[in-house]
């Protein structure tokens, strides 16, 4: 278990958008060994919603555009996934 001071000192240097982007990348890398395009698509769609719903006072506006892009790419990946 990490002490809270270590986590706090890490997060003070970055904004919420950068922390969410790191979690998105780690979650995507974590789903790759499953070799399921549906899970990757659902992950992208979920983080698209998260990036869009994050208040703009906490993150720069370009994270909203990332959320819109993920909301477009995610369903396209889901529809092209094999059953």
What does this structure look like?
By secondary structure, the chain is an all-alpha fold. It has one domain. Helices cover 72% and strands 0% of the residues. The protein has four helices and no strands. The longest helix has 19 residues. It is flat. The chain starts with a helix and ends with a helix. It holds the Pfam family DUF8006. It comes from Halopelagius inordinatus. InterPro entries: DUF8006. Keywords: Membrane, Transmembrane, Transmembrane helix. This is DUF8006 domain-containing protein.
Briefly characterize the structure:
The protein is an all-alpha fold and 83 residues long. It has helices at residues 4-11, 16-31, 37-53, 62-80.
Identify the overall geometry. flat
Helix content: over 70%
Task: Kindly report the average pLDDT value.
Answer: 92
Order of helices and strands: HHHH
| Structural class based on helices, strands and sheet pairing | mainly alpha
Rounded to an integer in angstroms, the radius of gyration calculated over CA atoms is 15 Å
Sequence stretches where pLDDT stays below 50 over 5 or more residues: none
* Count of discrete structural domains: 1
**In total, how many beta strands?**
0
Q: What is the count of DSSP helices, taking H or I runs of 4+ residues?
A: 4
SS strand fraction: under 5%
Protein name: DUF8006 domain-containing protein
InterPro entries: DUF8006 (IPR058319)
Pfam families: DUF8006
Keywords: Membrane, Transmembrane, Transmembrane helix
């Amino acid at each position: 278990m990490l002490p809270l001071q270590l986590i706090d000192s890490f997060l003070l240097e970055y904004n919420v958008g950068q922390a969410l982007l790191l979690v998105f990348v780690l979650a995507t890398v974590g789903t790759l060994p499953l070799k399921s395009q549906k899970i990757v698509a659902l992950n992208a769609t979920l983080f698209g919603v998260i990036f869009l719903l994050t208040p703009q006072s906490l993150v720069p506006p370009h994270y909203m555009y990332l959320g819109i892009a993920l909301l477009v790419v995610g369903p396209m990946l889901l529809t092209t996934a094999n059953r």
